[in-house]
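Known limitations

Structure tokens in this collection are predictions and should be treated as such. Users comparing against experimental data should check residue numbering before alignment. To illustrate the layout, the record for Cation-binding hemerythrin HHE is reproduced below. The input appears on top and the generated tokens appear beneath it.
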Amino acid sequence: MALMQWNEQLQLGLGKMDKTHEEFVSHYNAVVEAAPEQFLARLDDFIAHTEAHFDQENRWMEQVNFPGCHRAEHDRVLVVMRDVRNRIERGDAFLGKRLMEELPAWFDNHVSGMDAALAFHLDSIGFDVETGVITPPEGDCSGSANAGGCACTSAPARAGAEQV
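Generated tokens:
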């Protein structure tokens, strides 16, 4: 099995997300490089990391009311990983190898699609992933977490309103 390579295409410019994705690649590679007797233990570590990784992104999505299809994909991947893990424990090593062959393509697509959209959205509304606080760019209410309406106005808009 081929190792995953951390590369520029996987970087989305959201530090905490990029770090977690780099760790995902590292954990994946640890599974791929594991001796047969260590495969299951390394897979368990990888699954635990992936659970924490997805929980982190899911919390961000909940905080900003981001669409649920992203979370649903996280849930599906974890179900598959856990099922394959249980089958490996019962002696079905083939599915473990198959999972590891499929994950790099899935990860590339997930990062460049769903995670890129999430990172863009979080950045555009001024969401701080460390604090959970939204600080919209000055004079911009397009990124308001309150999608039903925005109470902010820019200085030029207020000035124009006063002149009418």
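For this record: Helices lie at 15-33, 39-64, 69-89, 93-124, 155-163. Residues 93-124 form the longest helix (32 residues). Please report discrepancies through the issue tracker.
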